[in-house]
Amino acid sequence: MTDTAVQQGEVNVDAALVRRLANTVRGLSIDGVQNANSGHPGLPLGAADFAVTLWYHFLRFNPQDPRWPNRDKFILSAGHGSMLLYSLLHLAGYNMPMDELKSFRQFGSSTPGHPESFMADGIEATTGPLGQGFANGIGMALADKLLAARVNTPGAELIDCFVYALVSDGDLMEGVAQEAASYAGQLGLGNVIYLYDDNSISLDGPTELSYQEDTAKKFEAMNWHTITVDGHDPVAVASAISASQRVTDKPSLILCKTIIGYGSPNKANSSGVHGSPLGDEELKLTKENLGISPEAFHVPDEDRDAWAARVTELKGGYDQWQAKLSAARSSNADKVALLDAFFARELPADLESKLPVFDPAKPVATRTAGKTALQALGKELPWLVGGSADLSVSTNAIVSDDKVLEGEFGGRHIFFGVREHGMGGIVNGLTQHGAFRGFGSTFLTFSDYMRGSVRLSALSEIPAVWVYTHDSIFLGEDGPTHQPVEHYAALRSIPNLSVIRPSDATETAYAWLAALEDRTHPTALLLTRQNLPVLDRSTDEFAPASGLRQGAYILRRERDSKLDGILIGTGSEVQLCVGAAQLLEKDGFSVRVVSMPCQEYFDKQPDSYREEVLPTSCKARVAVEAGVSLGWHKYVGFEGKVIACDRFGASAPASRIAQEFGFTTENVATRLRSLLK
Amino acid sequence: MTDTAVQQGEVNVDAALVRRLANTVRGLSIDGVQNANSGHPGLPLGAADFAVTLWYHFLRFNPQDPRWPNRDKFILSAGHGSMLLYSLLHLAGYNMPMDELKSFRQFGSSTPGHPESFMADGIEATTGPLGQGFANGIGMALADKLLAARVNTPGAELIDCFVYALVSDGDLMEGVAQEAASYAGQLGLGNVIYLYDDNSISLDGPTELSYQEDTAKKFEAMNWHTITVDGHDPVAVASAISASQRVTDKPSLILCKTIIGYGSPNKANSSGVHGSPLGDEELKLTKENLGISPEAFHVPDEDRDAWAARVTELKGGYDQWQAKLSAARSSNADKVALLDAFFARELPADLESKLPVFDPAKPVATRTAGKTALQALGKELPWLVGGSADLSVSTNAIVSDDKVLEGEFGGRHIFFGVREHGMGGIVNGLTQHGAFRGFGSTFLTFSDYMRGSVRLSALSEIPAVWVYTHDSIFLGEDGPTHQPVEHYAALRSIPNLSVIRPSDATETAYAWLAALEDRTHPTALLLTRQNLPVLDRSTDEFAPASGLRQGAYILRRERDSKLDGILIGTGSEVQLCVGAAQLLEKDGFSVRVVSMPCQEYFDKQPDSYREEVLPTSCKARVAVEAGVSLGWHKYVGFEGKVIACDRFGASAPASRIAQEFGFTTENVATRLRSLLK
């Protein structure tokens, strides 16, 4: 051990027992991979000793109550080692039957190639895309800190759990992990203890090809506590975990030196063992070498007994916590009510009535309206927290002025720094934790930087809210590097993600409401930098903005029963459609304006509603959106037109850009008129 | 200075002169921002002293030959400080007239809000999206190392230049920069000298809100040399640059402590000066405070004289280099020929004839065919280099077995580590350097991790090649975290990027050829993990794969002159279309199969060609692609169908996935048959 300050671990570790339990985990893991004829044996073989040390001696959980609020979380950030996690879940009594281990990587099993959080209890995060689990854990640890600041009282610490993760070389090379590590150090998250499977091998070969930095020193520079240990020595690992628990003002990284594929006589310490089954012969030799039964998926009775005893022991701690909670229900009723409310994340029935009302006489940017809406809703929803990647002054995604800072976790406004990807992973973890719903904001063009996390929010059905402002070429002078054009289509392409681009302040308020009403999917809100007119919905001219919930609605009805053409717009282009419809009316045409803030919502509507809004009989349609045309032919067909921006933007004032790129009322009218002749 | 080993700078610095020159740069910068009423005065004011020290005393360039191969490169990674760069280009004699400074951020100017590399000589990289310039510079430095290893001989070092960059807090917080930094340290790139504008202020306020790590220690842990200096002290800065030049086995980071908005009496050292014009009054006060003329866009004659003298001095060095080159043309003719060939990056006229031929009897994955094609082409094209984000064993994107390692720059196979975003930025820099064309590879799903760089390759017209394998749900057991579905549409949404998904080995070879033939746009190659049949193009049944160059072509013509329906497929789904057409023929239908590997190419074809392939009269069309349907209605209209995967995938063997998701010959036939009835 490099850290001489480490005291003897407080936990009494029976190294032989841990090694035996670890070998059983190894056997299950390589059997699973071999049975599937696909998977990654190297990590489970290498990491089993320290992983079992953690699970058997430290991790606090109750498999009968897998969402226990004060459980320790364990994240397998190196998700390719999934059989390690599935094996541990099985042995620790979670709902992970042996048949599932035998169905590893098969259709319909709860044991996919990489862990998916919604597949089984005890899988805290969807991992595999490297670095994401690392960041998710920081988000969960932040959530626990935020929660503790709200519900703990001296003597009644309801939340004092840890977040553990197993991270790999690959995790640590990823920028998303480095961003999250930097921010975790910034916040001094002492409830983070990560174990690094430091085996000097990656897929392409030894890490000396690509990764030789001084990891401990690097993390210390980011305000982390680090210890280096032999990852195959349970006593040393336990001592390091204990020491890390005592460091309460810094996250900890334990560098566990291991041999990848440990136990495999011919493949250990080689990249060949990383991602391919051992093969029948080497599997046999490995089991012999480890001294475990040749029988497939074998668990010795004494292992079952040992795990059962540990789970019983943990149940004791769980019961104590429940007793503490019960006591607190009388002594600190308000705190416990808060705890319940946070994990319920209920929306008040009258939430819609709390939406702000905007004055049609005062044009306002939807980013600004978004702030008004967010703060109005935030007052009702104490579990709504979030922030920005160093752009809150610009995105206006500020739920309250109470800052989240090191040692100050009572706030709600999070300063993620210029770390979009880390923000994405942290917000995912924060939201998946269960007590909060998180949001993160940046400019729309920088959604690219965090796409890996946005995808996982959608895949894992995490109801995060991604607030993306400066949503078009009309941000103006900052130029094409900052002007999104492809991002509408790129975000819409992600399954399970709702992309909402509201057309004015009132729609923006409904967009926030809709995002929060959807409790199982993430939402991206695309908001303008520039001011937009506020449509006067009190008049007959414009329909109520609640139509946003249907994704598209008839914003402004055609003048008479004859429908000549339809203009479909989103966001700032809806005003152009309204203006064009008015122009065309002067020419005697009867034109409908459809506001389509959310294609995903609209596509889920019944056929009858979609037909009502966009009647098949009306082929004269023009869609207007200041981004690429990709995807719009679905709504306008071969016979319609799309006014789009199928190129990168330009640096200039917004009004000039609108002229140059054809986003004018006149051009919209001209294009539809050409279809009406 | 923290580094006591720093010797007295070799350069004789007149601090008063540098400060005067810097103040003129400050004046031009704040005038530009004020004139545009938009922009970022804080960085130019803060960084001018050290930037001018660098430009005036160190940077080797010739404004008359802006692409001089041995010039030092300067990258303004913190692109928001663009007026600093434009001002320096103007003063240093580049083709950057004063009128352009006065047209800052206006339509049609060469001075957009953030620097764009194609806008003017001397702008080495498009910057603004933070961290990208940092990574680009690493790519350029790597290119210089690769080039030096090829063309230098003892006594005739044709390439010995440096890459300098100005980086900010925001750059260093970004994961893409951290990844690139880690890899630069790994390679020991001693030709990198970055100056960090360490001003402790970011957009949202003081960096203590979000970024307090020990940057020097962190970079030292990544094998960088660091020095900390007062960024307003030209002598100290010069000494640090000289010291950094002497450290030849490590990249250098010079932490320049500065005051953001230096000189502004009321706004210096505040986030308010970061991104908003000073205002007329504060601008006036700032100029008074700095002791410079109140006149807008004023350059004193003595400044012009000083810069002219410096440029003349630099011309001497340039002439010496040209003399060395001339001498080498006789003494080392082969090396000089190589130098010329690298910067020409010409394709031999007979390159198509070098494409590999594949045996129709042997199914092969397109990732494997891609390797065969890459290596065949690579033999002809010595300037083609690249690698993988630790997945070369899987992506097979290996141009040669000669590795690029620290101190070994004669190779071509680059081990980027698990750093997709860093790889993207490095490949962009490597390619933009001019002597190489770079490629980078990973799994298609992880294109998300590097999208920021892919976008910039497209925006800046950098002809990089992005090789994305494991291109569909048919990668199988690794599951939804690794299975791309939205990525086809997401990549196609990017303007200027050609996305090619070849249907078999032969198309794959043409895809590589097409990618290389396009010298102004990046290309993404989407390749399978699984084996695919090799179509026998020697028969009448299948058209030649050269049709790929048109983006879509009639792969298999309908049976008779009557055209009943069209099946359109890409990649692995083309074989399903062929099978379905054969099935439907048995039912008496005459069905055309169109292979559409590249929508971008197809959309650029003349109307006549597009009409020939997809006749308007034939509305019975089914498009088949194992990704989201977004975008396909453009080719099938309201009346056609899309067989797609509008959800995340599943972990299972590929054959089972095909059954479950409807990607079978039978289903394709059934869907088209329903349109034919």
Question: What is the subunit organization of this protein?
Answer: homodimer
CATH superfamily of the largest domain in chain A: Thiamin diphosphate (ThDP)-binding fold, Pyr/PP domains
Low-confidence parts of chain A: 1-9
Q: What CATH architecture of the largest domain in chain A would you give?
A: 3-Layer(aba) Sandwich
Using CB atoms under 8 Å apart, which protein chain pair has the greatest interface?
Answer: A-B, 113 and 114 residues
- Beta-sheet strand percentage of chain A? 5-15%
CATH fold field value of the largest domain in chain A: Rossmann fold
Strand sequence of the main sheet of chain A, in spatial order?
10-11-9-12-13-15-14
Tally of extended strands of chain A? 21
DSSP summary: helix tally of chain A: 24
Instruction: Indicate the percent of residues in helices of chain A.
Output: 40-55%
Q: State the domain count of chain A.
A: 3
Which CATH first-tier class of the largest domain in chain A would you pick? Alpha Beta
- What class do helices, strands and sheet pairing of chain A give? alpha/beta
Distance between the termini of chain A: 82 Å
Gyration radius of chain A, rounded: 28 Å
> So what's the overall shape of chain A?
elongated
Protein architecture, described:
The structure is a homodimer of 677-residue chains. By secondary structure, chain A is α/β, with parallel strands linked by helices. The first copy, chain A, folds into three domains: 301 residues, Rossmann fold (3-Layer(aba) Sandwich), CATH 3.40.50; 182 residues, Rossmann fold (3-Layer(aba) Sandwich); 132 residues, Rossmann fold (3-Layer(aba) Sandwich). Chain A is built from 24 helices and 21 strands. In chain A, the strands form five sheets. The first copy, chain A, has a seven-stranded parallel β-sheet with strand order 10-11-9-12-13-15-14, with helices on both faces. Chain A has a five-stranded parallel β-sheet with strand order 1-2-3-7-6, with helices on both faces. A five-stranded mixed β-sheet of chain A has the order 17-19-18-20-21. In chain A, β14, α18 and β15 form a beta-alpha-beta unit. In chain A, α1 crosses α3 and α2 packs parallel to α3. Chain A is elongated. Chain A starts with 14 loop residues before the first helix and ends with a helix. The N terminus of chain A is likely disordered. At the A-B interface, α6, α7, α8, α14 and α15 of A face α6, α7, α8, α14 and α15 of B.
